[in-house]
Amino acid sequence: MAATTETTDLPIEGMTCTSCAQTVEKALMSTEGVVTASVSYPTETAHVEFLPQTLDPQALADVVVKAGYGVKERHVQTVLKIEGMTCAGCAGSVEKALAAVPGVRSASVNLMMEDAAVTYEADQTAVRDLVEAVRNAGYGVRINLDEIEAPTDETDPLLRDARNRFVLAWALTGPVAVLMIAHMTGLWMPPFYHWLELALSIPVLAVAGAATYRKAWQTSLHLRPNMDALIALGTGAAFVTTPMAIAGLKIASYGAVAAMIMAFHLTGRYLEASAKGSASQAIRRLLELGAKTARIERDGEEREISVDEVAVGDVMMIRPGEKIPTDGVVVSGSSALDESMATGESIPVEKSEGDEVIGGTLNTTGALRVKAARVGKDTFLAQVVKIVQEAQASKVPIQELADRVTGVFVPIILAIALATFSLWFFFPGGMETLAGWVAPHLPWVNFEGSAPLSRAVFAAVAVLVIACPCAMGLATPTAIMVGTGAGAAKGILIRNGAAIQTMREIDIVCLDKTGTLTHGKPEVTGIAGNKATEDEVLRLAAAADASSEHPVAMAIVRAAYARGLGLPDASDFEAIPGKGVTATVEGKEVIAGKEALLLERGVDLTEMAGEIAVFQEQGYTVVQVASEGRAVGAIAVADTLKPDSSDAVRALRGLGMDVVMITGDNPKTAEAIANQAGITRVLADVLPGEKADAVKKLQAGGVKKLHAGGVKVAMVGDGINDAAALAQADIGIAIGTGTDLAIESSDLTLVQGNLTSLVTAIKLSRATFRKIQQNLFWAFGYNLIAIPAAILGLLHPLIAETAMAASSITVVWNSLRLRAFAKK
Questions:
Q1: Helix/strand/coil (H, E, C) string of 6-60?
Q2: Cα(456)–Cα(420) distance, integer angstroms
Q3: Per DSSP, what are the bridge partners of residue 351?
Q4: Does residue 320 carry a pLDDT above 70?
Q5: What's the pTM value of the predicted model, to 2 decimals?
Q6: Which residues are catalytic?
């Protein structure tokens, strides 16, 4: 009986040619349990038939990663815009509701952005299930799938509404507040005070505070009370004392206190809405950078259209002083572009025919004709906005504690308030003894002559209004929003909040040589022949390399054309990753690559040893060439160090990190480049498929500072042939990616191709995390001190609400201080 098989399709990352597809296919086919494997380079997909009793899709993905490539995640991500959240408790309720939906892998709700980022398995659930879960939790929702929205349209109406409620509340509360304070301090007791108190407090609660009561009712109805429920109970309990006092009952009147509490609460809501607009300005500024119109050539004539109507392939005309409408390639003309909006670098960059340009950048001097290459959500600017939005919707691990606390905070406070009321009502003598030692120092605390009911209401209301889960809920989102926004303005794209926390723990920064430390644009600097002319050596090597996309191979081909050499056709081309190429040229087998490849094919390199050693000692990459099994020559290729590399290496050491260079070059060449950069630790002769293993070995130990999870390693590379290593590292950093930001394996993307931005990213991440810690310290510390004081009746409800507002303001202020730091 034939064994049962299953099939799966794996989306492959990091393939750059058909040889890559062959490598992945061979790796899969050599795996026990795989029946058939077919890898398509154009579709970047591996179709695998396997035995489920031996393997599963995750094991197949591990095989691909070990081969030096990556596998894209197959779950779906979407963003829902949540309506009706007013505090951290609301965010926790929505998050729990989404997490309970079958197939949801993760749900992260951002109170500041009012959105929920959800990752789910498409074959188990759908967006409609997520929407239903949110609505069942008592909140509104609308889908925001791939739309890139400016926050202005959403934030301004909310800000206006919050401001109007704030103004109305204080306009009515102000007069009675003066009278109440006079009454509290014994200066003056106006006639009809209680009637005036009642008349002014009703519109404050019923009109300005109507939304608070509605939300309190909705959340309580779903058994998930939030901050609004605490305020509603506190103000309601305080308010009813006024009509009770008017009716002649022996109870203190707190109607004015209820109005003051609501006014302070609405002040906090207004400040939070204002802070939300300020913290999200980064996205707003990015969206405003794009051009609104474009002039294109269609049907032989020039016309001006909206940038949304530009299609791929349209040729756009850009005059000096105008913005590039969308990403494209220069067809004709030359100019200098101000790319500071993308890279943070203010010096204009020269562009000419064949160069890529970024939509939104400013044309400063000459006229350009540009062919549109990306439009809409595929453009560089749209990718940046999406990355920043996703990062701002993410969380740092330290926030888990705050989330757990806020998840149970409101029910606990309700229980404490009930217990406080009961203790003061049923055991007033004992509570007076506990609080009596401080009463002489607080003029508003007066236990003499007050009824037990008055004291009980006084203390219970203070407990209800002093509790502040909002400060804990705001602690990380505000700092993350400011930090990620500031990073985007400098060409530093932080993809998730966890990277901010992990960055401060990094022990080793592992730098790929080509394109990271060096320019990544090698040039031929020398040729040595063995019974062959330089031109002959170069011609054979270039013919064999003509089908390769490796930077060294392309440098050899460019050098051949520069000398005017005609390249014969090559057949039977094969690329051996990390080693070189073989091909048939003019009927002869030609090998071009590393020494190891030629030795494997039985080529004697003794006669070339002297020339090769000279090249290697000068730090050159050496490509050795053989024809028909005989060494014919060697080509020296130089890739110069970037001007800021050595300074950046010193700066990284100054931040307490060890620096390691990883490269496929031989040890002599690698050491020469490392010496120029000031790096003392080098991993040489590392093939692309071995880089992930090299990172894993670094993580296993061997440096001065260890964490519970071992050594923390950041891997910096181009994100293409480094995909597996970036994924293996604790932090994967893709550098110098140009207009292509879709590198799923990286945690940070540095738009500029230099290491100075890496140093800036590390400093910014550390500063952001410090602000998160400060915010959490203030939020937790405040609640730990204030709530016990309220239980003992030592805080007047008015003072309690003032302190609560101050706590939230402190958290927002700490986060906005980060913006000032980031601008330096």
A1: EEEEEEEECCCCHHHHHHHHHHHHCCCCEEEEEEECCCCEEEEEECCCCCCHHHH
A2: 7
A3: 335
A4: yes
A5: 0.67
A6: 512
